[in-house]
Each structure stands twice: as C-alpha cells, then as structure tokens.
Task: inverse folding
C-alpha cells in the first residue's frame, strides 16, 4: 500500500504542480541516497530546472544550454535509457559550485546518472542524480532508476493535465485554431519568477490575452513591460499574426503620424512613394505602443479615432482604410497626471486603459531577485567562459536588501558588471567563481534623480526640518519636472536661445526637446 510520502499516493492527490514535482524529487533523493536530484524541462535548446533537491535555490533560475553541457546532451541522446557517468568521467558537470552542501566548491570525484523523459512520445526533459560517494550508483541503482522512470513520467503527465484543466477553467474560448496551445519560451522573452504577486499577474494576463480588449501596462522602467506585451500576444488568438513594437518616445513629432498611419506619395517633402504605417504592418495582430504617454497631442487625436471606429487614414490620402489590430500600450508615467496637466487626452486615456495592468517592481517580488540572478549568472558564465559562476552568501543578502530602482534591467547589468570584474581581476576562466557582495557595487550606485554630492552630504540639523517640510509638499514627479525645466532653460540660455544647439548639448533630438519643453510649459 502507498504511504503518505510515497509518490504513488501523490498521483491520486490534488496538489499544485510545483508541490507535486518537488515532493517527487525529494522522495527520489531519499530513495537513492544521493546528494542532489534535478528535474529539467526541455524548451527549445535549453533545459530549465522545474524542481530540485540538493542544489542552491537560485539554480531554479538557470537555463542550461544543451550544446554547452555535454553530460546533459548525452543523457538526452540516450532516449530513455539510464546514462551513468562514473567517478573518472572527464565531462564537466553542469552543477559545479551549485550543490548546497558544497557551496562555491568544485564537485569532488562523484557518481552521476540520469535519464531522458518522454511524454506522449515527445521529448520532455531529463532527470539527473548526483552522489558524492563513489559507488553509490551501482547496477541495482541503475535498474531502480529505470523502473522509476515510468513513475516520474506519470507524475509529470498528471501535473500537466491539472495545469491544462486549470487554464481551461480560466481562459475564455478562442476562435480559429484554439487547440494550438501557446507556450512560454525560454531565453530573452521568458518572464521568470515564483512570487505570489507575479504568479497572480501572469495568470491574469493569460486570461485577458484571450480577449481583444486594449491593455495598458503600467510600471517603472526596467520591470519588463515589453515581455508582458509579448506574453499577451503569444497567448492570444492573434499569435500567428504580427506583433509590431513602436517606441513612441523615439518618434520625432514631425514623423509620428506617418510612422503610425503611413503616407501617400508626395504627402510631404521626401515622401517619394506610398508607405504603409505600423497599423497596417500589424494587420490581424497586435500593435504594442511603448511609452504611449510621449505621443504628440495631434497624433493622440488620430489614434483615438482609430480606436473608436477601426479606421486609419494615411497622411495625404483622401479615404480611410479599415484595420483589425489589437492595441497594447505601456507607460512608466502617470497618465492620470498627464491628463490633468493637459499633456494627454482624457478620452484616449479611457480608451487605452480598458484593462490597466500594473506590473510589480522587483523590490516587491521577494526571492524572485535570486532566481533572476541565477538566470543572468548562467548567461555570463557561458559568455565569459567560466567553469561556474555563482553568488556568495553576502551577495545574495545584498541583492535581497537593495531597492532596485532600475528593476530587472538593473539587476542584469549588476550581475554582468560583477562577472566582468572577476575576469578583469585575473580569475582563471576554468575556476569556480563566487561573486562577493562588494563586487556588485550596490552601495556605489547613485539614487536616480539625486546628485552624488547631495547623497553624500547630510543636511545640517538646522535645515533638516525645513527641507523635510518642503519635500513633503511636492511629489517626485513634480520635482523631476522642475529639474528638467531648469536644465532646459539653462541649456537654451547657454546657447543664446538656439534650441538646436541646446538639444545637442542635452543629447536629445530637437523635435523631442520641443515636445518635452511644451509639456513642461517652457516656451521657445
């Protein structure tokens, strides 16, 4: 009879997928008396850990490229037969430096075995076992693992069916080829994390994706708004049509209308041929308007008309054209404040924000920062040729403490910079590199919008109360606007009213400088 800790009992239990698979690898580690067990899912050319026991937690965030790890590639190629690597194997181990019992140390002489897994006749992934004591995986252990393979595949199949049933209960029916499931892909388009706030948002986005409602993605710089736009498109009925990305902040005001809606030949100087715009390029698919708050008011009016009646009109054309496009917009600004200041149309705001989706900043996602760090560590390990690259304990604590004003993008840069620092200090590429906290340089990073001198010099006691009172009376947005306003005025004054030269000094396109100045109330 199965017991409570027997995976056979779990097959008949209603368990979340992550819990079911975690209990399975924990049971396997006990069953085989080994140091680590890892269950990895094959996604394109990468193996993604979905459950592990015996490795450091951030290993869940890593993605092991099959072509870079010969042991994993060999297991996959054996097609269901147990593969063993004896203690004298010269093939590098993908888990060097990642065992929780030997953090940051090379794996000693040890045994390793694994088996490729197939679900419904298709490759699914691999199961690997590592034992620190040589001779652990004898002939009896290999036979036992072969017998356990059917149990492991059954647990995966049950977990997948439960996940699909849950998705069917939440997702509205799709028209067309609804039986073609959209899947999350690894690599640069993957949204990684296990925090409750992120898991809830991902499930919400997959439900909303099945509709044609406009979605407004709200969030700070670096939270991954483009990744969420891709997820919405990938899980929508429009996924086989184009996803067209438009960075509204990079559109010069003079060309914004032509870029979005197209133009006829002769519509303006330089228009030597008819040209379709981004709306027509996205026909049948999704148009992602990034930084939508930067659109000029004149273009906002035409965008509103398109949202209202599904028509566009090329610049210089006499007749409108019908378009079938879903709009996903994103901004790191408060569009409500821009509506109040007159910089954004209220009617367009309400059209775009039919379904507003705030994306949580990294500091609110708890341990996700370590999973993401694991992902970036593996990318840099492969890029720089290290044998292994991981975080010291104080570095992990520093990442969890830091406020992350630049969010996931800033984390990626921090890890990449620390890995390069290790290389520049003469660390041998074949070494197991452990990054300490001081190599992350988190204490040296400036707070956005605050001059270094202001950070370093504390307020005198006599001025602290007055400054606190003054700061409490304004918002961060108004403080930033005031700083931009003064900077523009100073640059224009320096160049005696020459706005083109002021734009060059500020490293801005002249039309974008004029647009920003109008929003801030600075008159030419």
Result:
């Amino acid at each position: 009879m199965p017991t409570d800790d027997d995976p056979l009992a779990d097959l008949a239990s209603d368990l979340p997928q992550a819990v079911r698979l975690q209990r399975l690898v924990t049971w396997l580690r006990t069953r085989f008396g080994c140091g680590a067990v890892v269950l990895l899912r094959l996604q394109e050319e990468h193996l993604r850990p979905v459950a592990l026991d015996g490795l450091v937690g951030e290993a869940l965030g890593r993605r092991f490229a099959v072509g870079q790890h010969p042991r994993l590639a060999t297991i996959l190629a054996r097609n269901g037969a147990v593969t063993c690597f004896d203690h004298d194997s010269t093939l590098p181990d993908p888990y060097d430096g990642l065992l929780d019992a030997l953090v940051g140390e090379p794996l000693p002489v040890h045994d390793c075995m694994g088996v490729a897994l197939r679900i419904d006749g298709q490759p699914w992934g691999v199961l690997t076992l590592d034992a620190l004591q040589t001779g652990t995986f004898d002939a009896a252990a290999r036979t036992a693992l072969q017998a356990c393979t059917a149990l492991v595949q059954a647990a995966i199949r049950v977990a997948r069916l439960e996940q699909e049933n849950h998705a069917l209960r939440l997702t509205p029916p799709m028209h067309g080829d609804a039986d073609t499931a959209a899947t999350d892909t690894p690599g640069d388009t993957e949204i990684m994390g296990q925090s409750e706030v992120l898991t809830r948002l991902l499930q919400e986005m997959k439900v909303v994706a099945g509709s044609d409602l406009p979605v407004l993605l709200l969030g700070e710089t670096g939270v991954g708004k483009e990744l969420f736009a891709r997820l919405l498109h990938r899980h929508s009925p429009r996924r086989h049509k184009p996803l067209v990305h438009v960075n509204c902040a990079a559109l010069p005001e003079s060309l914004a209308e032509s870029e979005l809606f197209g133009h006829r030949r002769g519509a303006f100087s330089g228009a030597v041929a008819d040209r379709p715009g981004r709306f027509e390029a996205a026909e049948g698919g999704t148009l992602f308007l990034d930084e939508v708050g930067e659109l000029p008011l004149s273009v906002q009016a035409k965008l509103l008309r398109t949202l209202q009646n599904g028509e566009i009109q090329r610049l210089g054309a006499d007749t409108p054209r019908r378009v079938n496009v879903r709009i996903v917009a994103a901004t790191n600004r408060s569009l409500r404040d821009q509506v109040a200041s007159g910089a954004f149309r209220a009617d367009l705001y309400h059209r775009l924000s039919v379904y507003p989706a705030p994306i949580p900043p990294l500091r609110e996602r708890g341990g996700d920062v370590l999973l993401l760090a694991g992902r970036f560590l593996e990318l840099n390990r492969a890029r720089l040729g290290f044998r292994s690259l991981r975080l010291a304990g104080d570095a992990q604590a520093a990442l969890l403490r830091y406020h992350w004003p630049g969010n996931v993008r800033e984390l990626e840069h921090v890890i990449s910079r620390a890995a390069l620092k290790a290389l520049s200090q003469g660390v041998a590429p074949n070494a197991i590199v452990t990054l300490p906290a001081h190599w992350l340089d988190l204490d040296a990073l400036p707070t956005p919008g605050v001059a270094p001198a202001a950070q370093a010099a504390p307020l005198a006691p006599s001025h602290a109360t007055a400054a606190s009172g003054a700061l409490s009376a304004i918002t961060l947005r108004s403080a930033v606007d005031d700083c931009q306003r003064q900077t523009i005025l100073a640059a224009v004054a320096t160049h005696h009213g020459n706005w083109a030269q002021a734009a060059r000094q500020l490293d801005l396109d002249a039309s974008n400088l004029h647009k920003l100045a109008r929003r801030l109330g600075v008159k030419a």
About this structure: The first helix runs from residue 7 to 11. The longest strand covers residues 122-131. The chain has 20 helices and 15 strands. The domain at 7-168 is CATH 3.30.450.40 (Beta-Lactamase).
